[in-house]
């Protein structure tokens, strides 16, 4: 059969996939769904790295099912909210006051850094490295 006699487009009845004639070959008309583009923060990047190195099968499945971006976005939003919540709780338990910013700034900054580190360590163990 010559190229002029072939149909330009055909549909496979079993699969429902459309094919277009390109040269002498029929190529499937396949399009991937567009994934939402996200910007990963610290927690999203840490989770991605952990999945790649320690949970390779889960990473591959999520990647192939186009669920990876959604998962990373959810983890980073949850982690950030949890860190903020823990910082407020730890601040309330410490003897830190807003007046200390003016009177003893170094003590205040040091204590805040410690509180933030504690909160991040908790979140890393709860959400990122699981």
Helix share, percent:
55-70%
Q: Enumerate the strands of the largest sheet in spatial order, edge to edge or round the barrel.
A: 1-2-3
Number of strands: 3
Largest sheet descriptor:
3 strands, antiparallel
Overall mean pLDDT stands at 91
Structural class, judged by helices and strands? mainly alpha
Number of domains: 2
Dominant shape: rod-shaped
C-alpha-based Rg, rounded: 26 Å
H-E order: EEEHHHHH
* Ends distance: 59 Å
Low-confidence stretches: none
Quickly count the helices: 5
Strand content: 5-15%
Written account of the structure:
- With 130 residues, this protein is mainly α.
- The chain folds into two domains: 1-31, no CATH class; 42-128, no CATH class.
- 58% of the residues lie in helices and 9% in strands.
- The protein has five helices and three strands, in the order E-E-E-H-H-H-H-H.
- The protein starts with 8 loop residues before the first strand and ends with a helix.
């Amino acid at each position: 059969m010559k190229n002029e006699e072939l149909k330009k487009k055909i549909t496979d009845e079993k699969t429902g996939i459309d094919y277009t004639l390109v040269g002498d070959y029929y190529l499937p008309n396949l399009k991937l769904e567009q994934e939402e583009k996200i910007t990963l923060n610290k927690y999203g990047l840490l989770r991605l790295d952990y999945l790649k190195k320690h949970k390779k099968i889960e990473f591959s499945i999520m990647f192939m099912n186009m669920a990876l971006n959604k998962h990373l976005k959810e983890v980073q939003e949850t982690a950030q909210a949890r860190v903020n919540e823990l910082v407020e709780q730890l601040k309330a338990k410490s003897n830190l006051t807003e007046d200390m910013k003016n009177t003893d700034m170094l003590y205040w900054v040091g204590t805040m850094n410690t509180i933030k580190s504690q909160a991040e360590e908790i979140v890393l163990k709860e959400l990122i490295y699981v």
